[in-house]
Specification:
163 residues, alpha+beta, Alpha-Beta Plaits, six-stranded antiparallel sheet, two-stranded antiparallel sheet, 8 strands
């Protein structure tokens, strides 16, 4: 069984519903969701005049390998209405990224694990630290709590209070 940390984000439509629907789909197609962070409202990263994002991190247990997991995540994005363009940063109904796959280090044309920018992004580190602050980044050899303390990202990240 593989453990996969996945980041989810949405800034179009009903953001919370988009995340919930994505988690439901992943629970059916990718494996069993075993942990879900709180929701975090986040300032759009490197995007001017965009609606703020709602982000969260989930932990999945799966029998899939990393490449097949990536296929499932991309298919889920398509099912949720994601249309990819050549723009690196753009508004989207859903964005789903693999952060960690066990403690694997993978670099291929198709995917890079751990996610190459996660240690630079508070909108990933805050919810990840909520789920597992002691997880050790396999390349940087630091735990998530330490990476969050060291993160210089100045974009705002705020936990969404439950209704």
């Amino acid at each position: 069984m593989n453990s996969v940390y996945v980041s989810l984000g949405s800034n179009l439509g009903n953001r919370e519903a988009n995340l919930l629907k994505s988690i439901e789909l992943l629970n059916k197609t990718a494996g069993k969701v075993i942990a879900v962070s709180s929701l975090y409202e986040t300032e759009p990263w490197k995007m001017d005049d965009a609606t703020s994002f709602i982000n969260q991190v989930i932990l999945l247990e799966t029998n899939l390998n990393a490449e097949k997991m990536m296929d499932v995540l991309l298919e889920t994005e398509i099912q949720m209405g994601r249309v990819r363009t050549s723009a690196k940063y753009e508004s989207r109904a859903i964005d789903i990224d693999i952060l960690f796959f066990n403690d694997a280090i993978i670099s291929s044309d198709k995917l890079t694990i751990p996610h190459p920018y996660l240690h630079q992004r508070k909108f990933v580190l805050e919810p990840l630290a909520e789920i597992n602050p002691g997880f050790i980044h396999p390349k940087l050899k630091k735990d998530i709590a330490r990476l969050l303390l060291e993160c210089e990202d100045a974009y705002s990240v705020a936990k969404v209070m439950s209704k």
